[in-house]
Amino acid sequence: MKRNRLAICDPEQEYAYRLMDVLSHREDFPFEICTFTSTQKLEECLKERPVELLAIAQTAFYAEIERCQTSGILLLWDKEGEVRPDLPGISKYSGVTKIMKKIMEIAAQGGMVSFPAATKADHFVRFLGIYTPIGRCLQTTFSFALGQLLACNHRVLYLNFECFSGLSGMLDRSFESDFSDLLYYLQESSEAFLNRLYQNVEQVNGMDMIGPSVSGFDIYRMETGEWIRFLENLTKSRYDYVILDLSDGVQGLFEILQRCSSVYTILREDSFALAKLAQYRQLLEKADCRDVLEKTKEIRLPIFTKLPRDLNHLTGSELAEFTERMLMEDESERV
After folding, report:
1. Residues 59, 18: Cα–Cα separation, whole Å
2. Which of 145, 147, 168, 144 is nearest to 156 (CA)?
3. Least buried of 220, 268, 299, 334, by fewest C-beta within 10 Å?
4. Exposed (0-12), middle (13-18) or buried (19+): which is 266, by Cβ within 10 Å?
5. pTM above the 0.85 mark?
6. What is the spatial distance between Cα 319 and Cα 156, in angstroms, rounded to a whole number?
7. Distance of CA 92 to the CA centre of its chain
């Protein structure tokens, strides 16, 4: 299948090739990329073979380039005060994720890309619910290890629903958009919602994720019906696994857990933790949610000699080794 072409042009060679390298390693980036540090060579190339989209440094852009055949142009600004109001642009010093999103936005507006709802008509999305009523039990770290391991062979989306996740600090990055931004499109069609989702995902060691809501209270205001609509949209997505890192404040928590293929609950052995778990199990029974208990795997994490501090690369940690053994056990039980 022929891919659209993106040309990157910047006299600053290191910048141009760095941008090309990062974009070309994104599996979901639907462009063939060619890079130029000379506008003369760019112009010669465009006359012989037009490109669909051109990302060019503001300092390299001139009228002759504008007359070349391209479906879209993105100016990479050096100084925001010198922008062209008639052309889309972005600071070249923005994060690569933000630049990629701008490229995808222009491409979508020009009809250059479309996002399939799922890879196959019979595609099945497995929701993995991670929830425990106990605090400070490595739930999010476990969720990240699980997601990164699964991402070695599958398409994985991770979503965090804590009020104060702290993930921006733990991952040492600022998210260009977050879950609250995505909710704005929940009332749109599934296709529009998923397009917006795909445009805003960021990657952590092969695993896709959406930044957690800056204001976690946006999550707590979501009603059960909105959660169900959200999950139904994701069933049409391209992902094989969606990891839901859940918290107490989520309305319709039990209904969400019922829609999960598997539920993972981390245990601790102290008296307070055991009392909380007992109350949680009793409430599931009273709410007629025995199916949640039946598909729940209760996990007793061992004492690790060293806990990972970097959530960006967990696949080589002791926690990842434990999680990988658990996944192998789950697979053998299904067989």
Report:
1. 18
2. 147
3. 334
4. buried
5. no
6. 19
7. 23
Correct CATH for 126-334 of 3.40.50.300, 3.40.50.720, 3.20.20.80, 2.30.30.240: 3.40.50.300
| CATH number attached to the domain at 4-109 | 3.40.50.10850
Report the b/e string of 291-304 with b at 16+ CB within 10 A: ebeeebeebebeee
Between 78 and 286, the more confident residue is: 286
Domain boundaries, the chain: 4-109, 126-334
The three-state secondary structure class of 98 is helix
Tell me how far apart the 2 most distant CA atoms of the chain are, in Å.
75
Q: Check whether 68 has a pLDDT greater than 60.
A: yes
Helices (H), the chain: 13-24, 39-48, 63-67, 96-109, 139-150, 167-171, 179-183, 190-200, 217-220, 224-234, 253-258, 271-286, 290-294, 318-334
